[in-house]
Amino acid sequence: MNMRIGVFDSGIGGLTVVQEIQKYVSHADILYIADSGNLPYGTKSKEELTVYVHNILDSFEAQEVNLIIFACNTATSLLLEDMRKSRETPMIGVIEAGAYLATRRAKKGIGVIATPNTIFSKAYEDAIHRKNESIDVYGIPCFELVNIIERECTQESYPLYPIKQELGAVPLSRIDTLVLGCTHYPLVEKEIQQITGEEIQLINPALEVAKEVLYLSAHYEKGEGGLYIYTSGSIVQFQAKAEAILGQNCKVYKYIHKEKSF
Ligand code: DGL
Fold first, then answer.
1. 12-22 residue pLDDT tens
2. By the 8 A CB rule, do 12 and 86 touch?
3. Does the beta carbon of 184 sit less than 6 angstroms from any atom of ligand 1?
């Protein structure tokens, strides 16, 4: 059985997870779905996201994917457990990985920046406290950061001021570790580090997800290492963004939701 991994996110963020996976596992075929037509996921209701994610998982299963990565913290926090109950394909999220890395490194409090849905679900707080119940966790919802990154990712550089405004509530004096709890955020890791100062260590959960995929890859035969990208939004726009991020030519196909009740 060749390794065929289905990776999805609401937009370009999950490509940061794809990049890490490809560093460790170059022979897997990756099908990437960006639900850009429904971005952002971070402020939508669980009911709405349930329909979108079921559709995406159905598409993966129709394409005989044998491992699914929720490359989206929002979908992981709200839906991963439910989806695991109703499907047999193995699924990996990003939150356990982020909580694991953060608790291994933190000596002081841990900050988590993420979408409002992820923060208000308390998924990171719970996952971190399952590993270390005495550590302080500060969740900071960022309402605009995903939109800023989606808008600016094809430009020469990201504008620092709006990113700084989004991070205004991070209690820098109480933490030494900050989890990038949205897969879009590693794209502005440099800017975030500039704002927090070098003494705060930033955690990208994708690094641990990629190791997990490497570990699991022993159970599969090698695929061809292809990357097939689909979007429910504009193909032209997504292609430009994906090429800017991945630094290579990308062919992007249309993804159409099978049922859409919202
Ligand atoms: N990249 C996604 C995440 O990790 C969601 C961004 C959004 O659509 O709000 O949560």
1. 999 999 999 99
2. no
3. yes
Q: Distance, CA 222 to ligand 1 centroid (Å)?
A: 30
**Cα distance between residue 64 and residue 219, in whole Å:** 16
Non-local CB neighbours of 168 within 8 Å, separated by 6+ positions: none
Residues 260/254, Cβ–Cβ less than 8 Å? no
Query: pTM for this structure?
Result: 0.97
Which atom in ligand 1 lies closest to the alpha carbon of residue 181? 4
- Predicted confidence (pLDDT) per residue in 167-207, tens digit: 999 999 999 999 999 999 999 999 999 999 999 999 999 99
Longest dimension (CA), the chain: 50
Is any atom of ligand 1 closer than 6 Å to the C-beta of 9? yes
Q: Report angle CA 137, 139, 145 to the nearest 5 degrees.
A: 145
